[in-house]
Amino acid sequence: MARAIQPPPDALPRRQGLTGRPARCRARPGRREGGPMRVLLIEDDALVRNMLSETLDGDGFEVDGLANAEDALILLGAGQVPDVLVADVNLGAGLNGFDLAEMARARHPDVEVILISGSAPEPARWAGGRREHFLQKPFAPDRLASMIREAGAARAP
Fold it and tell me: Where does this protein have coiled-coil stretches (predicted)?
């Protein structure tokens, strides 16, 4: 089952999650041989995050959903490296999806990134040979699942 997780409260100061209580998280270095593809989904809209998490879980992905980039960086720093990182470009206050992509790749250069947004990204943001995939909202969840599979295949050795 898909799960919305939060880092331990003592990891770093951060904004409080929707439930107000931290969920347990395990350090996972990468995909197990033959195991499901791991997806870290960062979406500030709880309804969208939950719907995408459940849909992707039903498609056989192992999904961790978070509301902000700061929490994602805590998990990435703790060794929870997904096969594919999916992040909304506009995450409200704090870091945005572009910032998260850059910081995630600085720590884990092989992680594949899909950015999603309700608006087209600024052309200046895509200058300089960015490697992220982009999917504009609204989209069918099966389109996202397909992009995740393609990105994960590109990451596979």
Answer: none
Q: What are phi and psi of 140, to 5 degrees?
A: -75, 135
Predicted TM-score (pTM) of this structure: 0.77
19 has pLDDT over 60: no
**Residue 46: φ, ψ to 5°:** -60, -40
Task: Tokens for 41, please give them.
Answer: 């989904």
The one-letter code for the residue type at 89 is V
Which class for 22: exposed (0-12), middle (13-18), buried (19 or more C-beta within 10 A)? middle
Structure tokens at 13: 């100061």
Which pLDDT score, from 0 to 100, does residue 35 have?
Answer: 82
Domains of the chain (ranges, CATH numbers) = 35-139 (3.40.50.2300)
Length of the chain: 157
Cα dihedral 32/49/120/123 (nearest 10): -50
